[in-house]
Amino acid sequence: MTLMLCLGLAPALGGCLFLGTEKPDAALDVPARYQLAQRNQDAALPSVIWWRGFRSQQLTGLIEEALTSNLDIAAAVARIVQADALSRIAGAPLIPAIELDAGALRSRSSGTTGTSGVVGTPSYRSSHSVLLSASYELDFWGKNRAKFRAAEDIAVATRFEREVVGLATVVGVANAYFLVQSAYDRLNTARNNLAAAVRVYNLVDERFKVGTASALDTAQQESLVNALRAALPLLEQQLRENIASLAVLIGRAPGNFKVATTGMGPIAIPPVTPGLPSDLLTQRPDIRQAEAELAAANADVEAARAAMLPTITLTGEGGYTSAALRTLLRPESALFTVAGGLVQPLLDGGRLQGQLDLTRGRQDELLQLYRKSVVSAFGDVERALVATQQSARREQLQREVVRSSRLAFEISETRLREGAVDLVTVLNTQQALFQADDNLAQARLARLQAVVSLFQALGGGWPLPPKRAAAAQ
Description:
Blueprint: H1 2-14, H2 57-69, H3 71-91, E1 97-108, E2 124-138, H4 143-209, H5 215-250, H6 277-283, H7 285-306, E3 311-322, E4 334-343, H8 351-418, H9 423-457, H10 466-472
Antiparallel strand pairs: 1-2, 2-3, 3-4
C-alpha cells in the first residue's frame, strides 16, 4: 500500500518544482504592408486549392495526383511517424515503469557430491514466485517533462516540414507543366516560322530561275531556313525532358506517362493579393517549422539545466515466493522491498556544463534561422510581387512587338512578290518576327512562373477571413 501510494503521488509531484527558463526574444521586424501591394490586400487571398485558378483541368489532375503519389511527400509522412514514436519514447519516463515477473524452478542435486564420498540419495528442490516491481524518477526539476516537450515540438516541426515538401511539390509540378506547354508553343512557333521561311525561299528561288534574284539572295534565305531547321531538335529535346521531369514529380515512370500538349494559351492567370505581412508568420509552413524547432531547442535547454540537479528515484518490489505451488499465495509467502535513491552529480569533467552550452548554442542558432526565415519570407513576397507585375507588363508589350513584326513581315512578303523590295528587307522582318514570337512564349512562361512563385512565397492556400468565410457559408 505504501508503494502504491508513492507511485500514485509521484506524477503529481513531478512538476511541482518545474525549472523554467527565459525564452529568447526573436525581435522580428514586421512591416505594416508590402511595397507593391494593392490597397485592399485581402481582396483575393489564395485559396487552399489555389492551383485550380489556372483553369486547367489537366494541371489540376496532375497536381492532385502528385499530392498522393509523390515520393518526397511519402518520405515526409514517414518522418512524421518516426517523430511521433520518438515523442512517445521521450514521454515514457513521466509515468512509473511496472513489470510483472512470474517463474517456477525445479532442481535436482547430485547424490555423489557429499563430503564422505559415499553415494547418497539426490535431493529435489522447487521454487515458485510471482513478483511485481516498479520504478519511477521523480521529475522535480522538470527534466523529463522538458525532454518530452522537445520531442513533441519536433513532431510538430515534421508536420510543417511535410507541408513545405507538399507546397514545393505542387509548385514543381506547376512549373514543370508550364515548361512542357512553353516548349510545345516554342516548337510550334519554330515550325510555323520555318514554313514561312521556306515559302519565302521558294519565292526567291523562282525569281532566281527567271533572273530577277541573285544567287546571294537564294543562299541567304537558304541559310535562314537551315538555321530554323537546326533549332527544332533542341526544342523537341526540351519538350521531352520536361515531360520526363513532370512524370518523376508525380511518381510515375516517364515511359508510362503522357501529357496533352495544348500550349499556354488556354491557361488563365488567377488573381491573388498578398494580405498583411503579419499574416505571413502563420501561413508559411517553413516559418512555422522553424518556430517549432526553436521551441524544441528551448525545451532542450531546460532539460540540460535540470540535469545538473539531483535525481530522485523510487523503486519497489512486492509479490509472493514459495517452495510449493499450493502455498504460493498464502500471506506468509508475501515479500516486498521499497527503496529510494538520490544522485547528485559532483564531478563529471564539465560534461553537464558542456551539454548545457551545446543546447544554448543550438538554441541561438535556431533563433537566428527563425529570424532569417521570416525576413526571407518577406523578401520572397516582395520579389514575387515585382516579378508578377513586371512579367505581366512584359508580356503585354511583347504582344505588341509580335503584332507589329508580323504586320511588317506580311507587308514585306507581299512587296517581295511584287518586286518592290529587296531580300535584305524581307530577311530583317523575318528574323524580327521569329525572335518576337519566341520571346512572347518565354514572356508568357515567365509570367506564369512568377504567379506560381507568389503563391509559394505566400505559403500556398490561406483560410478565408472570418467575414468572407461567413458570407461564403
